C-alpha cells in the first residue's frame, strides 16, 4: 500500500513515521536504519559536543542511507538566565544548523523551549522546521511563529513533561481542529493500532521513541533491552515514572514498551507496524492500494 500524508509529502518518506529525538543514542549508526526502513531517521545534534564530530556523523549518515533524514536540536526547557547567555546559546545552536544545512539536511526538529531563531534560519535555506512540544498552547504559538508542522507529545509518552500535559488522544484530536499545519502524534505509540488510531485522530505522522528502545540497533546493552521488554506497565512504580510529574524519569520507556516482547530490528518493527495496519484497514473494508489523508475535506 502507498502511504500518502502531508508529512510523507513534506519529508519525502515512504511511511508517516518519524524517529524520536534521542539524547545519547540519536546518531547515524542508529538513525540510518530508521531512514532505510522508510521513515525519517533523526540525528540529535547535541549528542556531539564538538561540532566537527557532528559533521562527521552527518557524512556517515549519507554513507549509510540515501534516504531523507532530519536533525534535532533540543533546547533547554527554561529561559536563559540573561540576554548574553541566550545569545551565546543561539550562536552555538546555529553553528549546528549551518553544518547540517551544508551537509544537505532539509528537515529540522526542535524541542524544549522557544526555537523560532532556528526556524527562521532554516526557512531562509528553504528547509522545514518541525517543533515538538507537550502543550497545545505551545503548539498554537509555534504555528504562529512559522513552524511547518508540530509534534505533540501526550501524557503517555516519555521525555519532557509539563504538569498540565494532556493525553495523546486529547492532544491530537484538538490539535487537528486548532492548527492549520500538519500534526505529528507522539506519546505511547508502539503498535499498528496506536499508529492507525493517531492517523484517524488527525495526525499526519507518528513519532516513535520508546518503541525503538528495544530494537537490535539501539545502542544499549542487551540486558537493558531485556529488562525493558519485561517491564510491567501496570505496576504502580512504573506508573509513577511515566505519569507523575514529580517522580517522572525522563529516560524511562513509556507504555509503548508494553507492545513489545522481543528484540526486533528497526526494519522488522516498522514493517510489522505497517503490515498490521494494512491488514486492519483491509478487515475494515478498505480496498485501495493507496492510503491518503490528502483528500480529507478538513485538511
Ligand atoms: C532515551 C530517550 C532519550 C530522549 N531524548 C530526547 C531528546 O534529547 N530530545 C527530545 O526532544 N526528546 C527526547 N526523547 C523523547 C522522544 O524524542 C519522544 O518525544 C518520546 O519518546 C515519544 O514518546 P514515546 O517514548 O512514548 O514514543 C527521548 C526519549 C528517550 C526514550
How would you describe what is shown here?
- The chain has an eight-stranded parallel sheet with strand order 2-9-8-7-6-5-4-3. A two-stranded parallel ribbon has the order 1-10.
- It has helices at 6-11, 28-36, 51-64, 83-102, 116-124, 136-144, 168-178, 192-201, 222-229, 236-243, 266-283; strands at residues 2-4, 17-19, 41-44, 69-74, 107-111, 128-133, 149-153, 183-186, 205-208, 290-292.
- It has a single domain, classed as Aldolase class I (TIM Barrel), CATH 3.20.20.
- The chain is an alpha/beta fold.
- The model has no long low-confidence stretch (mean pLDDT 93).
- The structure holds flavin mononucleotide (FMN).
Biggest β-sheet: strands ordered side by side in the sheet: 2-9-8-7-6-5-4-3
Estimate what percentage of residues fall within beta strands. Answer: 5-15%
Structural class: alpha/beta
In helices, the fraction of residues equals: 40-55%
Q: What is the rounded Rg?
A: 18 Å
Tell me the number of structural domains.
1
Average the pLDDT over all residues and give the rounded result.
93
In CATH's first tier, which class applies? Alpha Beta
Count of alpha/pi helices: 11
- Tell me the overall shape: globular
CATH fold-level name: TIM Barrel
Give the oligomer, counting copies of the same chain as homo and different chains as hetero. Answer: single chain
CATH superfamily: Aldolase class I
What is the CATH architecture assignment? Alpha-Beta Barrel
Low-confidence stretches: none
Amino acid at each position: 500500500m502507498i502511504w500518502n500524508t502531508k508529512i510523507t509529502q513534506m519529508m519525502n518518506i515512504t511511511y508517516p513515521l518519524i524517529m524520536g529525538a534521542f539524547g545519547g543514542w540519536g546518531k547515524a549508526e542508529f538513525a540510518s536504519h530508521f531512514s532505510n526502513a522508510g521513515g525519517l531517521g533523526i540525528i540529535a545534534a547535541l549528542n556531539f559536543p564538538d561540532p566537527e564530530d557532528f559533521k562527521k556523523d552527518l557524512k556517515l549518515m549519507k554513507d549509510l542511507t540515501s534516504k531523507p533524514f532530519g536533525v534535532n536540536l533540543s533546547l533547554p526547557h527554561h529561559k536563559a538566565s540573561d540576554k548574553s547567555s541566550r545569545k551565546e546559546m543561539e550562536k552555538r545552536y546555529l553553528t549546528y544548523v549551518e553544518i547540517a544545512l551544508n551537509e544537505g539536511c532539509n528537515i529540522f526538529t526542535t524541542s524544549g523551549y522557544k526555537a523560532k531563531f532556528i526556524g527562521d534560519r532554516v526557512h531562509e535555506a528553504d528547509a522545514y522546521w518541525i517543533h515538538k512540544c507537550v502543550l497545545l498552547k505551545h503548539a498554537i504559538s509555534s504555528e504562529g511563529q512559522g513552524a511547518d508542522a508540530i509534534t505533540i507529545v501526550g501524557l503517555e509518552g516519555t521525555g519532557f513533561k509539563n504538569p498540565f500535559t494532556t493525553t495523546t488522544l486529547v492532544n491530537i484530536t484538538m490539535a487537528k481542529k486548532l492548527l492549520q499545519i500538519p500534526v505529528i502524534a507522539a506519546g505511547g505509540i508502539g503498535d499498528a493500532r496506536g499508529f492507525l488510531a493517531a492517523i484517524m485522530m488527525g495526525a499526519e505522522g507518528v513519532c516513535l521513541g520508546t518503541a525503538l528502545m528495544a530494537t537490535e540497533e539501539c545502542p544499549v546493552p542487551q540486558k537493558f533491552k531485556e529488562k525493558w521488554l519485561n517491564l510491567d506497565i501496570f505496576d504502580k512504580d512504573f506508573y509513577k515514572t511515566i505519569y507523575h510529574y514529580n517522580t517522572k524519569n525522563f529516560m524511562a520507556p513509556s507504555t509503548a514498551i508494553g507492545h513489545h516482547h522481543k528484540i526486533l530490528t528497526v526494519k522488522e518493527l516498522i514493517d510489522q507496524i505497517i503490515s498490521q495496519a494494512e491488514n486492519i484497514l483491509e478487515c475494515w473494508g478498505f480496498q485501495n492500494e493507496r492510503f491518503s489523508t490528502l483528500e480529507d475535506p478538513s485538511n
